[in-house]
Amino acid sequence: MKRLLPFLLLLAACGHKPADPAATAFAPVRAVLETQCVHCHGDNRLSSMPPINDTRAIAKLISSGWILPGKPEASRFFQVVTFPDEIPGAMPPSGHAISKKQVQILRDWIKAGARVPAHNVKLSPQGPLPRSV
Q1: Is the pTM of this model over 0.85?
Q2: DSSP for 33-58?
Q3: What percentage of the chain exceeds 90 in pLDDT?
């Protein structure tokens, strides 16, 4: 460790920050949320809809129990994206279910602890606006 300390100090002096493992793990989740959720749960959402517009808002979903780290099937957040269209509250709205690959990304992230980056990350809608039915 003594030999590593000067190197770490040099990196810090140069402005290099070590990678945030939570940010790396969150990247594929961010892609799913930005293409499937943020259009409706972003800055212009209805007040009755939980926000998913940045990682602080997602951290609140975790602290409030909507997302239970390590327990995807018990997490309301995960349940609504896996409900069949005929179940009220299925997300995204009926006819717009997310892909099996996207479901697996969310499941894996929650199972691994649902960690979010240390710094707040703003989420922006990506792709076409989903149509509500």
Answers
A1: no
A2: HHHHTHHHHSTT--TTSPP-SBHHHH
A3: 56
